[in-house]
Amino acid sequence: TGAPGVGRAMARHAGPRLPLIVKNLVPTLGSVFDSQRVTTTAFFAELLNSNVVNDLILLETMVDNLTGRQKDPCLLVRMLALRGLGNIASGSPDKVRKHGAKLLASMVNGMDDKDDPQNLVALEAMSSLSKLLDHLEERDVQSMLLHIAIRIRPFFDSEQPGLRQASIVLFGNLTKFSHGHCEVFFEQILNGLVTLLLHLQDPRPEVVKACKFALRMCGPSMGCEGLCDMFLNHLREERSLHYGEFMNNVCKHLMQSYPEMLNRLISTNLFYFKSSWVDIRAAAPMFIGFLVLHVDEEQCQQVDLDQLISGEW
Q1: What's the pTM?
Q2: What is the pLDDT along the chain (313 residues), one digit of tens a residue?
Q3: Does 294 lie in the same domain as 232?
Q4: Same domain, 69 and 198
Q5: Counting Cβ atoms within 10 Å, is residue 69 exposed (0-12), middle (13-18) or buried (19+)?
Q6: Residue 42 sits in the same domain as residue 123
Q7: Residue 26's domain spans which residues?
């Protein structure tokens, strides 16, 4: 179990001794040895999962020290620091708001980490931010809403299922903060809509579950009661989905409410004709078929047939 296991045990059993232990460990965060920085960061991250740091007035020190690890040359240290900051949501939820701006900045910096080839830091930042969001000040989140939504969008199609899941769940959680920024965020929902609907056919069940959650969360912001009801009723976590029938009805509502979106929706679907996932590749032309089926004749004239016919299968 290593440092996290020790952190859990000490949070439970070594309360009064922790301030001295933490004080003695802080200097190792500046150690020249990666292993020492990793171990101490992992230990601190696990301590933050417990309210004991709050009781012993250690929270401020640990937040400052983990925030200071953002530029650490070791990727694992940067990742564990974000995990620790995210753990405040379970260890000391009532203190998240106080440190909100700093925590939010850390998560956004983590998503923008330039030296993260496997996107492990970004994954940790997205997962941690999802945990923190319920406890953050609304105005803090709204100031970063658009930046985060745009930043996480490419991860929806990542080859790594963990990144697909974390980014889609975070997107769903962000919609809670979209009122007051409805038009701007509505544009982000439209940008992600085709992707979320197609990934209901994702090969990984945890990604399908994330898409169901995100679409249920997006429904109320879409200004279409029929669509919102469909997402809430058909995309319940435990309910199995008849995908073809569901998409037929979704497209009917989309074309009744947003007929001017036809070409945009078709273009996005064409991109997925080359998807590496066979079920998503199959879902895209079906999606287009249902859109064309439900659009009125006048709008249908605007479909770029050359683009459609040349879509590579």
Answers
A1: 0.90
A2: 455 555 555 555 555 678 888 899 899 999 999 999 999 999 899 989 888 877 767 888 989 999 999 999 999 999 999 999 999 999 999 999 999 999 999 999 999 999 999 999 999 999 999 999 999 998 889 889 999 999 999 999 999 999 999 999 999 999 988 876 567 788 899 999 999 999 999 999 999 999 999 999 999 988 889 999 999 999 998 889 999 999 999 999 999 999 989 989 999 999 999 999 999 999 999 999 999 999 887 776 667 666 666 655 4
A3: yes
A4: no
A5: buried
A6: yes
A7: 1-136
